Amino acid sequence: QTDAYCRICKWAYAKRYGLGWNHEHQTIEEPLVSSRTMCVSPDGFLVRPFRETWFALSNPAASAKTAAAVTEDCDDENAISRTQTIQNDLFTVHRTLSHHDSIVDILIPEIKSSHDEQIVLRLEVPIQNWEGAHFRDVHQLFPSQHVSTYSSIAIQDRKSRLTILTNWQTQLRCPTHGTVEIVVQDDAVNEQENRGEIRKIRVILEDTSSLRDVLTEYETSPFALPL
Question: b or e along 2-27 (b: 16 or more beta carbons within 10 Å of the residue's beta carbon)?
Fold first, then answer.
């Protein structure tokens, strides 16, 4: 048996670090769609806790760069950081992945495109948000002097939630369930003022609470508050 005080400590720890919580048994569990580890495929693309795909909007099929196959084989499952150059005939992206406590940070110091392409990062997770339902600009729930310079989006189902924040204003969309697209570079005219800036994308995956969360509303979780 666990006394009430220890149960409260465990619950607080789970919420602070994005872990699951079994209300019936009062125990900490692994998150349903997230992971305490980052799985990068042998060809250098993230496949867990979400799958990444980079493409140019003018030719998505031909330009797409992603893991060569759907695989659970990780190049280094214990890695907490990974830097890679993603390149094809239309664009080159230098990016670093950093993983901690069910959060993935994506840092993009440099983007180059040959024909002023719109470069898009697609993230795919097993979240069944009906007809691509999503919440925009959830970062505005937090008072901050940087609110006007950020962009954000969140999707959720009855068990899990994905929240994405960027440190610049950009287009975020959810074309279908479990999929979010981030425009990391627009046309050359709009990009002039952003040169030299390290673009940062924060991806937060967490379980939802059947006691606190409502499917049609976005509630700020204790896990997101310190971020």
Answer: eeeeeeeebbeebbebbbbbeeeeee
